[in-house]
């Protein structure tokens, strides 16, 4: 049975506590620690290969992690750690129960091509949670309205633009009513003219108080939408603070160089 832990009002929703992850001899996350409060938006920035996406995948236990502990609402993600320090993987049922509280949107949409937009949104709540068709459909319609795609509900993904597909992917994640939404470089596969429509949707979600962790190369967007920004390089979280602190007064030399390249207009 999954642990039932009651959080205080001030407790963070997500806690990443000294987390490490290796692929063979390559250490991709090194002693990473951060917290995300309910209703907060945290953006993860940094050069490619810095460990941002791996960290996001560990939060949803799509990747295992080797050291430290991640908790969501007080429930440990993927593993239990005994008093003697031994790690034990949780059961598939426990892992699935936690994942059902976490929505994740990927850079390449991952929509089911053989299902309509409406079917893409409703399949998981009905099959995974056993929810009745009528309320799920109503919720899905509300979400499609929210992302500006109610008129596309009977279309197939191949009939939509990349920006529209990504907005459908966001709506699909929200149909499960997650406590946490993870967004992994959701604009990187889009043509430049389509980026704005997706960022507008994410900005509206942030304004509504949805808790999000976002991996992004869109620096101005990260500055505008985030409560906190975390800078990673080489698998290490080097700096974390308010957007003003990170963008206007970076302390770490590596972040200073990163921001200088950004201001010079280089591709990050």
Low-confidence stretches: 1-9
**Mean of residue pLDDT values:** 91
Individual helix count: 9
Tell me how many strands there are: 12
Morphology call: globular
N- and C-termini, Cα separation:
44 Å
Strand-residue proportion:
15-25%
Q: Could you give the order of strands across the largest sheet? A: 8-9-10-3-11-12
- Written as H for each helix and E for each strand, in order along the chain, the element string is EEEHEEEEHEHHHEHEHEEHH
What is the gyration radius calculated from CA atoms?
Answer: 19 Å
**Biggest beta-sheet profile:** 6 strands, mixed
Structural class: alpha/beta
Percent helix among the residues? Answer: 25-40%
Overview of this structure, please?
With 268 residues, this protein is α/β, with parallel strands linked by helices. The chain contains 9 helices and 12 strands. Helix 3 (117-128) packs across helix 4.
Present the secondary structure layout.
Elements: E1 14-23, E2 26-36, E3 41-45, H1 52-59, E4 67-72, E5 75-76, E6 79-81, E7 87-89, H2 92-99, E8 102-105, H3 117-128, H4 133-146, H5 162-175, E9 180-184, H6 192-207, E10 212-215, H7 219-225, E11 228-233, E12 236-241, H8 243-248, H9 253-263
Parallel strand pairs: 3-10, 3-11, 8-9, 9-10
Antiparallel strand pairs: 1-2, 1-4, 4-5, 6-7, 11-12
Helix pairs in contact: 3-4, 3-5, 4-5, 5-6
């Amino acid at each position: 049975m999954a642990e039932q832990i009651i959080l205080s009002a001030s407790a963070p929703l997500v806690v990443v506590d000294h987390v490490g992850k290796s692929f063979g001899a390559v250490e991709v996350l090194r002693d990473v620690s951060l917290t995300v409060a309910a209703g907060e938006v945290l953006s993860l920035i940094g050069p490619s290969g810095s460990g941002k996406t791996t960290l996001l995948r560990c939060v949803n236990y799509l990747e295992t992690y080797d050291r430290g502990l991640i908790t969501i609402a007080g429930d440990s993600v993927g593993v239990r750690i005994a008093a003697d320090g031994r790690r034990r993987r949780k059961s598939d049922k426990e892992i699935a129960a936690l994942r059902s509280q976490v929505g994740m949107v990927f850079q390449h949409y991952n929509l089911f091509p053989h299902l309509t937009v409406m079917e893409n949104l409703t399949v998981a709540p009905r099959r995974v949670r056993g929810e009745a068709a009528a309320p799920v459909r109503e919720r899905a319609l509300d979400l499609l309205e929210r992302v500006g795609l109610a008129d596309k509900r009977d279309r197939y993904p191949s009939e939509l633009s990349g920006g529209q597909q990504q907005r459908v992917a966001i709506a699909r994640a929200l149909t499960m009513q997650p406590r946490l939404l993870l967004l992994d470089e959701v604009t990187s596969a889009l043509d430049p003219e389509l980026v704005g429509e997706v960022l507008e949707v994410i900005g509206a979600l942030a304004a509504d108080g949805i808790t999000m962790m976002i991996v992004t190369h869109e620096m101005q967007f990260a500055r505008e939408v985030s409560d906190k920004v975390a800078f990673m390089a080489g698998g290490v979280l080097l700096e974390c603070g308010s957007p003003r602190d990170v963008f206007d007064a970076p302390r770490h030399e590596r972040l200073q160089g990163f921001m200088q390249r950004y201001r010079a207009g280089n591709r990050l």
